[in-house]
């Protein structure tokens, strides 16, 4: 489950040319925190909502 979600997020970020630095700036968090969130080593409702709105990926549905 997690690997598929991680790959989807990473592929979409590449498609849209969005860097982890850019995400960090938008969310006001560190690049390290973004890395953990993208790789699903940690979770955040705020990040999940950002992914849904900016990338069109509903992480909650992916994990079902």
Topology at a glance:
Layout: H1 2-16, H2 20-27, H3 31-38, H4 45-55, H5 59-62
Helix pairs in contact: 2-3
Structure description:
The protein has 64 residues and is mainly α. It has helices at residues 2-16, 20-27, 31-38, 45-55, 59-62. The protein is 72% helix and 0% strand. The radius of gyration is 11 Å and the shape is globular. The chain contains five helices and no strands. The protein has a single domain, classed as 434 Repressor (Amino-terminal Domain), CATH 1.10.260. Helix 2 packs across helix 3 (31-38). The model has no long low-confidence stretch (mean pLDDT 94).
List keywords for this structure.
single chain; 64 residues; mainly alpha; 434 Repressor (Amino-terminal Domain); 5 helices; 72% helix; globular
Query: Which CATH C-level class is it?
Result: Mainly Alpha
Q: What's the CATH topology name?
A: 434 Repressor (Amino-terminal Domain)
How many domains make up the 3D coordinates? 1
Helix fraction bin: over 70%
Structure classification: mainly alpha
Q: Tell me the CATH architecture.
A: Orthogonal Bundle
Q: Determine the strand fraction and express it as a percent band.
A: under 5%
* Major sheet description: none
What is the CA–CA distance across the termini? Answer: 8 Å
Q: Determine the mean pLDDT.
A: 94
Output the radius of gyration. 11 Å
